[in-house]
Specification:
This protein has helices at residues 3-13, 33-43, 62-73, 78-91, 103-109, 111-121, 137-145, 160-169, 190-201, 217-224, 234-241, 246-275, and strands spanning 18-24, 48-51, 97-101, 125-128, 149-150, 152-154, 174-177, 208-211, 229-232. The protein is α/β, with parallel strands linked by helices and 276 residues long.
């Protein structure tokens, strides 16, 4: 059983939901990446998504775009991201780490080399935004052979055919994009998300993690009421970029995640009490 699967199994046994923060590698500073990951775990992260900087992050809104730009200006490369993943794993053998990014850096690195380095670094999952399942069968197979979960996106517009492809091909969890648009959007319709998640549960065996549009404790708690995991990224990055220095940025990120952890656990406890 993979670390991601084990995490979801443990949380399900505890009737809890996963909290998954996303941060961009190299932001707010290259030397802060590994300490930030550890701080997020201490604040309550169950799984971490670590973004690989890219010059054209087409699915991301302005907040994450700025984080990518800052990281690239500091010379952050995919090789460095893998090195930071290995450093994190050497100190934390338990928390699943997912690399999230785009095809161009992976292809430039070399797909086989990338998969091998991910395995050596202790990466647990990989989500490449612009690798649709129709074009990712060999890539997904390579990841699986290396013990890494290939993670795919589903959206409100995903067809039945796309859902049928993602479920057997993917691993770890399915990332459900809660709205039409880019990361950081603020028009989250929780009722609509809940209806769609309920529909997907009839077709998808993997845990369903919901991201995009979640900005505060109330939104996280609402999504925890219907999904298996809550993903938050833009708001963490936005809060960090408002701070005066790196240490304050890490503290602010951890503080926000702690609030979300309490909200998500509170929503799960309330749901459990209602079914007891």
């Amino acid at each position: 059983m993979s670390r991601i699967a084990a995490t979801f199994a443990r949380l399900a046994a505890q009737r809890r939901k996963a909290l998954i923060p996303y941060v961009t590698a190299g932001d707010p500073a290259p030397q802060a990446t590994v300490p930030l990951l550890h701080a997020l775990v201490a604040a309550g992260a169950d799984i971490i998504e670590l973004g690989v900087p890219f010059s054209d992050p087409m699915a991301d809104g302005p907040v994450i775009q700025r984080a990518n730009e800052r990281a690239l200006e500091r010379g952050v490369s995919l090789r460095q991201v893998l090195d930071w993943a290995a450093q994190f794993r050497s100190a934390d053998p338990a928390t699943p780490l997912v690399l999230m990014g785009y095809a161009n850096p992976v292809e430039r690195f070399g797909v086989d080399a990338f998969v091998g380095e991910c395995a050596r670094a202790g990466v647990d999952g990989v989500l490449v935004v612009d690798y649709p399942p129709e074009e990712a069968r060999d890539f997904a197979a390579a990841l699986r052979n290396a013990g890494i979960d290939p993670i795919f996106l589903l959206a409100p517009t995903s067809t039945a055919a796309r859902i049928a492809q993602v479920d057997p091909l993917g691993g770890g969890y399915v990332y459900y994009v809660s709205l039409k648009g880019v990361t950081g959007a603020a028009h989250l319709d929780v009722q609509q998300v809940a209806r769609r998640v309920q529909e997907l549960r009839r077709q998808v065996r993997l845990p369903l993690a919901v991201g995009f549009g979640i900005r505060d404790a109330a939104g996280a708690a609402a999504i925890a009421g219907c999904a298996d995991a809550v993903i938050i990224g833009s708001r963490i990055i936005e809060l960090m970029e408002q701070q005066a220095d790196t240490q304050q940025a890490i503290a602010a990120a951890a503080g926000l995640l702690g609030e979300l952890r309490r909200a998500v656990d509170g929503a799960a406890a309330q749901a459990g009490a209602g079914t007891a």
